[in-house]
Amino acid sequence: MRIVLIAAGTRQPQWVRSGFEEYARRLRGNCTLELVEIPLGRRTSAGSARQAVEQEAGRTLRAIPRGARVVALHVKGSPWSTAQLAARLRAWMAGGAPVCLLVGGPDGLSSRVMERADERWSLSPLTLPHGLVRPLVAEALYRAWSLNQGHPYHRS
Length: 156
Fold this sequence. Notes:
Layout: E1 2-8, H1 14-26, E2 32-38, H2 49-63, E3 69-79, H3 82-95, E4 99-103, H4 111-116, E5 119-122, H5 130-149
Helix pairs in contact: 1-5, 3-5
């Protein structure tokens, strides 16, 4: 199964890239994880954040492969335990379609993007730096995958 993390923002610190790459590399065989970075919308003193979010929305929606299952990462989504994520991962794998996880920019995801989402996942009620979300999601997916594989990485 192919999982695509579609994230707004193209300039992340090295530790973000390294953390994401470490866990994405560990996923192999029947489950892969890739990153698609979407340039942020232009934010100027004359422009509004809403315009920037709409620019990001168009780019995000175009990056979603046809037939993909879409999961928006959003503070008002459902919190999933590792076991719940592992169960979702099994269901996604059984469905056979690619899965796209969407991460918005500093001003979040547009209503158009949220309407496209099949599910909403909340990592935490905390406001997290958008860069931190990338390695956090990659590690959570790897942990859920390793649980499904009976790999010793996951210990409850």
